[in-house]
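Glycosyltransferase
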Amino acid sequence: MHPARSGSEDGGATPKRDDDNLESSGNHHLKLSGAVALKITLVFAVVAITCLLFYQSSYPLEFYLKSNSLVWPRASNISSSCENHDAQSNASSSFYQFMSQNTYLLGKEENDELEETLRKALMKDNKTVIITSLNAAWTEPNSMLDLFLESFRIGNGTEDLLKHVVFGAFDQTAYNRCLAERLHCYAITTDGVDFSGEAPYMTEHYLKMMWRRFDFLRTVLQLGYDFVFTDVDVMWLRNPLERFYPDGEFQIACDRNWAGYSDLSNSPNGGFYYVKSNSRTIQFFNYWYTGQDYFPGKHDQDVLIMIKNNPFIPGIGLEIRFLNPADFGGFCEPNQDLDRVITMHANCCVGLDNKVRAIKMVIDDWKRYMSLPVDQRNSTIRSWTLPRICG
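Predicted C-alpha cells:
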C-alpha cells in the first residue's frame, strides 16, 4: 500500500476518491438531464399552444366564457397531439347547464312589473308579444317613433298589432312619451348610464345600449315569452306572423340573403327577428350574449355573424332560419314587389336624420300604393323611391 500523500507533495492537489468521481459524474448527468428536461418542456409548451390556438380557431366562442363564471371542462382534455379535436365538437352537459342557468336576474319588483307589461300585450296565443326599444332622441316629434306608429296605422292589417307591442324605454323622456301614446311601456333601467341622447353608430355609448337591450330581450325569453323583435326604423306594412316559417324557432331578416332560408352564408340583421322561447333558444341567447366579452367593440349583430357557423348551435338542436328579403326587405336589399312586402327596414342608412328622411319616402310610397285600386297597385308603383345614398 502506498502511504498517503500530503497536500504539499503534489502542489495542493488531492486525488479524488471513487465516491467523489461518482458524485461529479452524477452532477454532470443531473445538469444534462436538466437541459433535456427544459427542451422537452419547451417542446410540449409549443405543441400545447399550437393545439390551443387550433382549438380556439375552430370553436372560438367556447373561449369567451368568463373564467370566474365557468371553468371550461374540455380545456384540460386537449391532447398534446391534437387527437381529441373531433371529439370536442360535442358540447358538454356542464356547458349546457351553465348556459341554461346563466340568466339575467331581475329583482322581484322589476320582474313583476315586466311580467305585468308582457301579459297586457299578449296575443291570442297567450305567449307572443312584439318588442321594440326607444330613447329620447327617437321619440322627438316628427321623428322615428311617429313614423313607426304611422306604419302600423296605414299598413294592410297591421293597426291591431300595436296593442301587442311592448316599448322598452331607455330613459324617462322616452318612457313618458310612450305613456302619452297610451302604449305598453317598460323602463329598461341601467344604473349610472344615460341613454337619452342619440348614440352614434358603433360608439361605446351605442354598444352599451345595444347589449343592454339584448340583455332585456333574453330576460323576456327566459320568462317564457315568444317575441318578434323590431327596431323602430322598421316599417310594418303587413302582418309578419302569417309569413314566418312554422318550424322556425329563431328566424331573422337579412342585410343580404344570397342562398335561401337555411344557408349560413346569408348576412343576418339584428333589427328584426322572431324567436320562440324554449331550452334551445334560451341557451342560444345566453351563448350569444357572452360574445360581448369575447368580441369587444362589436354589437349583437356582429357577434351573431361571427357565431352563426359555430357547431354549438346545431349541437343544441337549433337551426337559424333567414327571412325572405322579398317579404322582409330593407335599404340594403329593397323588396321591389309592393304586393308582397311585409316590412321595410332603414338598414344600410347611418344617422337618425338620414333614416327619418328616407323612411318618410317609404311612407309616401306606401300611401300612394294603398290609394290606388287593388288591380292597379303593383303595375303603377313598381319600386320604392329611396335615396341613392343614405348616410
